[in-house]
Amino acid sequence: MKILLAGGAGYIGSHIALALLENGQDVVVMDNFDNSSPEAIMRVEEMTGQTVSLYEADVTNKKVTLAVFKKEKPDCVIHLAGLKAVGESIEQPIRYYRNNIDTTLTLLECMAKTGCKNIVFSSSATVYGEENAAPCHEKMPKGKCSNPYGWTKSMMEQILQDASVADKDMSVVLLRYFNPIGAHESGRIGENPRGIPNNLMPYVTQVAVGKRDKLTIFGDDYDTPDGTCLRDYIHIMDLAEGHLKAVDFCVENKGTEIINLGTGQPYSVLDIVKTFEKVNNIQVPYEIGPRRGGDLPAVYADVSKAEKVLGWKAKRTLADMCRDSWNWQKNNPEGYE
Ligand code: NAD
Ligand code: UDP
Questions:
Q1: Could you say which of 24, 56, 178, 270 has the lowest number of CB atoms within 10 Å?
Q2: The pTM of the whole model exceeds 0.70
């Protein structure tokens, strides 16, 4: 099969590209490198000894995107292209709505024009909102999002679902990711945030490598066992392997399916810091700061549907995630630069 990864040069896309190639699939990547580097795909090619058809292109550009669909004729699209910084989305909502919604509409239009019926979408646990208490189950109604980034995900889910209602031959898989962390075991590809990291694990690794003085833990007065927030961290290679199963499911079925990708096991911010220190034998200085606006005390998945529908379950441990995150960071202190 040939799979088109829109936004495939990014953190998650590059790991999926690797997993697909190792599984014998053909991979096409479209990316404008807004938040990534072509170096990630070059490394994937080097690691697998295979080639990726790489297009530097903005997926909101319909002419260019249609030309790629006509030339490559993908069997399935994995739609990862989007802006993802929560804080930035509050400051620049129009840019977020324009880019994220537009990539989705353009991909759907190009699929309709070229007869591609299958799409797997990178959604997020954020669509559960604050109304739904963990563990989050796919049957729960979506909640109110606390920022424009989350709303773009919620709206894009609706758009994709509506498209599959109108075209009975379409298949849409909405994957709700929990917290992907870690890197490929080789340490050759990993997460490469621009500027100050917003997410916990890249911040931790940058403190460990000496790029930042200390981690600020956003609040230790939550109603959780140690007072810090609980999240469902999932190893990026487990997440990538989940996509292999999701693509197979997508091409074999019709309609829309919503599936959580997590481990179902909550860990606190302090669990992450302590495990990282222990596994890697390195100190992560931290201080306790105020809560971050919009953070929920506990977000984790009910993962029974992924196991039932996809036959997939995350295998890697928190220790694996901490070891591989550090392996990537210490071998690539400046990321891909
Ligand atoms: P990322 O920023 O590393 O990857 C996204 C890629 O999309 C980047 O390479 C970027 O350059 C590209 N892109 C953005 N707009 C584009 C456009 N108009 N045309 C072409 N390329 C474009 O982020 P990631 O962590 O790999 O996330 C991938 C997807 O998964 C995103 O949609 C994100 O919202 C979603 N997601 C990520 C997480 C997470 O924690 N990383 C959690 C839930 C959902
Ligand atoms: N967090 C933190 N310090 C940081 C970054 C994150 O204490 O510098 C906490 C944050 O409050 C949350 C958890 O780590 O409880 C995971 O945050 P992240 O932004 O990685 O993911 P999300 O909030 O989207 O689940």
A1: 24
A2: yes
